[in-house]
């Protein structure tokens, strides 16, 4: 059966009356304690994002005989591609009931979502979703690296999934060298007048930062005040995030969003999002590394795709784990069929700026 047939025979956008059937499907598919079943999370994610569709939430269902047998969620966002601003949609929570798999439900759902945006992107997908997108011709952008900055090697070694001679060497001699490097870079940042200021909420200054920073990235989701207030300040998990400004005088040079997660009994700092004016990324991370060190975190982690960050983070002592802590964070994208000119930039991972603030990567902590 073709995708068009499925679109005509049961794939439609979520409506309030679908809630009981959807909850039954999600409870069976994701578990009774799934985040998808939280009413506050549902309202925030599907009803409140900036740029939400006038047609309703970006949540599509496939129903047969009144029961939901598949779902595809989307998070609308504004995507800068070169000099253009496009309608983007993060593909999330593609799920099909086992008895309906390989019967066209998954492709029909993803095709329907793709029709609502200029560019559809998926991050951290399941193996089944990856295979489905691959068959549908999505662009495979590889994986999003995880950068790990060890702050206390002995404590990291105790909880690390890695072992061997290199890990033991880092544990025995790495701390003094890395601490010295951190302090030196931190001192340099302070010498140029940069300081780290924790704020309770984002304010209008981030709009100017976005305007001055966006041009250095070929493909990046918009990070203005409207987005940041929705993603962090209005989130049901707002209290888990700490917001830092990197200031010089009255000028905002960068922001960093930090979360502290427990990992096997040790506190690990997670950089959920960041944005810096040209030339200030290293200073921003140096200040955050020193903040994490002072607060006795065992490590600092940043999952990001940003070619401009690779060298500064390496200089600051971050290890690049291309396959993440446990499994690779795959990334795929699909430009609209009627806009082939987007393919060159969108299909090049070197052009992308991605953090865990994008899509649904940052919804769960390290130990969840």
TrEMBL record:
Gene Ontology molecular function: acyltransferase activity, transferring groups other than amino-acyl groups
SUPFAM superfamilies, alphabetized: Acyl-CoA N-acyltransferases (Nat)
Domain N-acetyltransferase: 9-156
Alphabetic keyword roster: Plasmid, Transferase
PROSITE patterns with a match to the protein in the record: GNAT (PS51186)
InterPro entries in the cross-refs: Acyl_CoA_acyltransferase, GNAT_dom
UniProt protein name: GNAT family N-acetyltransferase
Organism: Azospirillum thermophilum
